[in-house]
Structure formats: C-alpha cells, structure tokens
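Lab notebook, bench 4. The sequencing result for the construct came back, and we need a structural model before the next group meeting so we can plan mutations. Quick request posted to the team channel:

Model the 3D structure of this chain.
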Amino acid sequence: MGSKIFLLEDDLSLNETLVDFFEESGYIVTSEIDGLEAESTLYEKKFDLILLDVNVLNLNGFELLHSIREFGVKTPVVFITARDTIEDIERGFGQGAEDYIKKPFSLKELKIRVEAILKRYNKESNFIKITSECQFNRESGEIISKGVTEKLSNKEAKLLELFLLHPNEILSHEVIFNQVWEYDETPSDSSLRTYIKNLRKVLPKESIESIKKRGYRYVGRE
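Done. Here's the predicted structure in token form:
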C-alpha cells in the first residue's frame, strides 16, 4: 500500500492536478480546500505526509499547522504556497514544517522532495529506543528486549508509540482517544485502562504515570 498524503489546496484545478499526479505515482491522497475541514480530517485520520497551502478559507495553513501540532499530530508537513517572503518562510519552518516550496513549482520537484522526506522519516522512525537494551519497532508493533520479541496488539502499539513520541508530556484521555482509536470506533476509559495495564507489564517499572483527572504521562525508566 502506498504512503498516505493529505493535501490542503483551495485552487480546485491545482488540487485536482496534484491528487491525480500523486495517485498515479502510487500514493493514497485525501484532499480538502477549506482549512477547518482540513483540521477536522487531520484530527480524525493519520497520514504519512501533509501538503499545505497557506491562503485558504477559514483557517490558513500556518494556523492549521499550529493547531495540529498542539493536538499532537507529528506528521511531516510541506508548505506549497505563493507566499514567498522571508518572514513567511521563517514562520513556516519555525512552526515545524519540513519544507517550504514556493509556487509555481514543478510536479517532479515536489515529488522528489516528498519522496526524500518520506524516506528519511521511514528510516528514522521505524525503531524507537525505550532503554539501552530495549526498543520498539513501530512498523511491526513489537518490543525487542535482550533478543526477546514481544508482539503488542494494534491498540497497545499505537498507544506505546504515542507515549514514546511525547515523553514527559501529560496526555489527556481525549488526545489518546483521538490518536489511538479510529474515527468510527467508540473508545472508553475502561478499555484504555486495560491497554495501559498491559503496557506496564512489558515496560520498565513505573514508566507510565497516572495523573489524576488529567491523563497519563510516559517518563521512561532504565
């Protein structure tokens, strides 16, 4: 299955061109033309890369990137925009964008940049260190410790990945539900507690803290 790309572009002709181009290249593309609609989609679904125009309706690209980062979405973002001042470029990178491409651009160049980012992220992010002798394979959902492999359930793997990507941060139930459960699933506090309990069995003692009335925090232990 190809990588999943999300596109926010309010120029209907360019939107259609980009969707067709990337789909013909083997990618799975979801697109929106409105900033608020894009925000809703990015809160509910996961993608491998996000392409954002800046000047769009209701919520511009800069505001959208700030919003999804606050929500916990760490997906790499590339701006594609006609706004080309140094201040705009600085703002885009300052908010965490991986690249900033000025319009007009060639489709071939955009594809090269997208492929480079995806390759770098896939290579860097498959394994996450838990301790000096333990790591998590994001792709397979396995914990490897001293040569022993522990296979996690789908939800446990997603939950552990979320914790490892946000160490020492308090994650509310709402954030966890939105990141771990699919949009058409119904999460519950009891099921979350079960997954937390299961993770605690395979992680170093006291790695996951319960913060009363606020959520959970992964602190990590050797």
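The CA atoms of residues 49 and 75 lie 6 Å apart.
Will bring this to the meeting.
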